[in-house]
């Protein structure tokens, strides 16, 4: 049976002392998380090693928020998949809408980064999502299927068990975001699963973990996780402090039982 994944990207937040406070508070909680739940944390690069050292022993996967597609070379300011792995990362987030919108991430660079991650033994967590305009124009399904198909283009079937996809509608993310209803979240992830079945066949498509992200909070987590196509939740603001994350884990833990 698949585990329920629940984790958080901290985006560009937290000071060093806030990271230590978070780790001190969350480790006793992680120790009690049931084996049916897979926890993950994606801090900014400078804190990855510290967080990994604090939470590895509890089975929590730590990730980075970006990598370069190249293994090394003249790419000033970039960090390779190998470097991310060296500092303790197991996951790499690729193609978050903030990177697509503000840092010129394209479907093609997402695909190159997915291949770099898999080639280095990291799990790519690929974010896809429709914009508010695409939703208004009625082309949400087309937009997310295109992003998924290009992100996973050229992958072998043997690599798929390491792939995670998050449906994060751009209109649902952050302070201005309007949370997707459980129906909208389910619809997006069902659409993604069907696209994966078209690409790789039923068995392989079912191995890919599908997460929902975008204004997940303590009041909507239970309804979202109960949707049949949702394997887990990718949380921002509501899990940035240890209490919030602990509460979400307990809500999802209750659902497991
Ligand atoms: P929020 O939960 O703060 O809307 O952020 C979601 C997100 O972008 C996770 O990657």
From TrEMBL:
<dbReference type="InterPro" id="IPR000652">
    <property type="entry name" value="Triosephosphate_isomerase"/>
</dbReference>
<dbReference type="GO" id="GO:0046166">
    <property type="term" value="P:glyceraldehyde-3-phosphate biosynthetic process"/>
</dbReference>
<comment type="subunit">
    <text>Homodimer.</text>
</comment>
<protein>
    <recommendedName>
        <fullName>Triosephosphate isomerase</fullName>
        <ecNumber>5.3.1.1</ecNumber>
    </recommendedName>
</protein>
<comment type="pathway">
    <text>Carbohydrate biosynthesis; gluconeogenesis.</text>
</comment>
<dbReference type="InterPro" id="IPR035990">
    <property type="entry name" value="TIM_sf"/>
</dbReference>
<dbReference type="InterPro" id="IPR013785">
    <property type="entry name" value="Aldolase_TIM"/>
</dbReference>
<dbReference type="GO" id="GO:0006096">
    <property type="term" value="P:glycolytic process"/>
</dbReference>
<dbReference type="GO" id="GO:0019563">
    <property type="term" value="P:glycerol catabolic process"/>
</dbReference>
<comment type="similarity">
    <text>Belongs to the triosephosphate isomerase family.</text>
</comment>
<keyword id="KW-0413">Isomerase</keyword>
<keyword id="KW-0324">Glycolysis</keyword>
<comment type="pathway">
    <text>Carbohydrate degradation; glycolysis; D-glyceraldehyde 3-phosphate from glycerone phosphate: step 1/1.</text>
</comment>
<keyword id="KW-0312">Gluconeogenesis</keyword>
<dbReference type="GO" id="GO:0004807">
    <property type="term" value="F:triose-phosphate isomerase activity"/>
</dbReference>
<dbReference type="GO" id="GO:0005829">
    <property type="term" value="C:cytosol"/>
</dbReference>
<dbReference type="GO" id="GO:0006094">
    <property type="term" value="P:gluconeogenesis"/>
</dbReference>
<dbReference type="Pfam" id="PF00121">
    <property type="entry name" value="TIM"/>
</dbReference>
<keyword id="KW-0963">Cytoplasm</keyword>
